[in-house]
Amino acid sequence: MKIIYIWDAYCGWCYGFNSVFKQFHDRHPELNIEVISGGLFIGENSKPIGTYGYFESGNQKIAAMFPVTFGEKNLQLIQEGTTVLDSDGPANAFAVMREQIPQAQWSELAFEIQQQYFVEGKSLSEVSTYTDLASKFQLDATLLVQQLTKALKENTLSQTDYNQARAMGVTSYPTVISEVNGQYFDFRGQATTVEDLEQHYQILLKEG
């Protein structure tokens, strides 16, 4: 079985779901789980926070449904409204970092990156945001700076992920697809807990 998780770093619903998906991934490190960025806030949809108008109320709904919190610094960003959301930055950074850690940690990395924004209120387009995570994932901070600077400038790794997501017809996030014997299934469904995901997994095991 292969599981493909498509997310976006600036997506609040992905942040909520990641807290649950990470727990599932921790339970099953043996699974082939691919995590790719979908590109929610790119092109014409990459705008200052204040122009969207739904983040504060949306975050309240997410926090009520999932075991996550939104920090005061993130709330300040929303209220100020000037920070531009650009998914290219975190998509490139995630692509660089995931290649240097075990696949079993990919969902953990995604969640840690999101906490930098949703809790700490940091920009996900700044290299320094990711070097703060280097020690947690046992990465060389100096080398990481070089790699991230190059990746953010070239902006090609993100496009590879986006193209893969589009090829699967995915345009909303979070989306989780499972492949079993050449057949594809909606793995996420309406899951909001790790128990929901575990139930879906056990059902799909029977398909195999």
Give a brief description.
With 208 residues, the chain is α+β, with helices and mostly antiparallel strands. The protein is built from nine helices and four strands; from the N terminus they run E-H-E-H-H-H-H-H-H-H-E-E-H.
List the helices and strands and how they pair.
Blueprint: E1 2-7, H1 12-27, E2 32-37, H2 55-65, H3 72-80, H4 88-98, H5 106-118, H6 127-131, H7 141-154, H8 157-167, E3 175-180, E4 183-186, H9 194-207
Parallel strand pairs: 1-2
Antiparallel strand pairs: 1-3, 3-4
Features:
208 residues, alpha+beta, Glutaredoxin, 4-stranded mixed beta sheet, 9 helices, 11% strand
| SS field, number of helical segments | 9
Overall outline: globular
Number of strands: 4
Order of strands in the sheet with most strands: 2-1-3-4
- Enumerate the spans where pLDDT stays under 50 for 5 or more consecutive residues: none
CATH architecture: 3-Layer(aba) Sandwich
**Any idea what the CATH superfamily is called?**
Glutaredoxin
Question: Any idea how many domains?
Answer: 1
Largest sheet: 4 strands, mixed
Order of helices and strands: EHEHHHHHHHEEH
The third-level CATH topology is Glutaredoxin
Secondary-structure class = alpha+beta
Helicity, in percent? Answer: 40-55%
- Summarize model confidence as the mean pLDDT: 95
CATH class equals: Alpha Beta
Beta-strand content: 5-15%
Distance between the termini: 8 Å
Radius of gyration: 17 Å
